[in-house]
Design goal:
The complex is a heterodimer of chains A (121) and B (110). Chain A is built from no helices and eleven strands. Chain A has 121 residues and is mainly beta. The mean pLDDT of chain A is 96. The interface between A and B is medium-sized, with 22 and 25 residues.
């Protein structure tokens, strides 16, 4: 069974930093591209970042570019999101999601339960 | 800012059908394949449709998807109280190199 478990959320002051993690199990982590998606309280889904299976290619939403860094450790089956220069509008539940590809088809098929990041003084 | 627009809400009685539209703001954002996600209250999203009209295993055929030009549609037939949720379309934009979600639609079963 595919499992994605996020951790590391919490309260951080504006301008501060935080790293959230996602522990993967039940599949060959190194073969899959991964994503971070967030959801502010009472708001819709917002894609944050994507990383290739090898970790060599990353993409970011404009809202976090230059402040957030996605990375992975395939030996530890773990995905990370380093968040710097945090702002109030970064307050959200952060989900990790797996990208499943079959041929030319790709979609976000498995999601974790999310970890809450609150940016406030 | 989302480039995929959905109606804020739709509703229907149990057993009826609803459709949810997802319209791209521009014809040149390079979206070819749309997915649809269901988010029940307090839970993580779950994929219902991928590649415009394909269902992952375990998703009932009450859920269907289609795409024409820059618009996609999710259909739900035989509406059940358990279908009350938020629904989002999503797609990779090859021209922007970002993934975009729709604005979200709340489905209410009357």
């Amino acid at each position: 069974e595919v499992q994605l478990v996020e951790s590391g959320g919490g309260l951080v002051q504006p301008g501060g930093s935080l790293r959230v993690s996602c522990a993967a199990s039940g599949f060959t982590f190194s073969s899959f591209e991964m994503n971070w998606v967030r959801q502010a309280p009472g708001k819709g889904l917002e894609w944050v970042s994507h990383i290739s299976s090898s970790g060599n290619t990353m993409y970011y939403a404009d809202s976090v570019k230059g402040r957030f860094t996605i990375s992975r450790d395939n030996a530890k089956n773990s995905l990370y999101l380093q968040m710097d220069s945090l702002r109030g509008e970064d307050t959200a539940v952060y989900y990790c999601a797996r990208t499943y590809c079959s041929g030319t088809s790709c979609y976000r098929d498995s999601w974790g339960q999310g970890t809450l990041v609150t940016v406030s003084s | 800012q989302s480039v995929l627009t959905q109606p804020p809400s739709v509703s229907a009685a149990p057993g009826q059908k609803v459709t949810i539209s997802c319209s791209a703001s521009s014809s040149n954002i390079g979206i070819n394949y749309v997915s649809w996600y269901q988010q029940l209250p307090g839970t993580a999203p779950k994929v219902l449709i991928y590649d415009n009209n394909k269902r992952p295993s375990g998703i009932p055929d009450r859920f269907s998807g289609s795409k024409s030009g820059t618009s996609a549609t999710l259909g739900i037939t035989g509406l059940q109280t358990g279908d009350e949720a938020d629904y989002y379309c999503g797609a990779w934009s090859s021209s922007l190199s970002v993934y975009v979600f729709g604005t979200g639609t709340k489905v209410t079963v009357l």
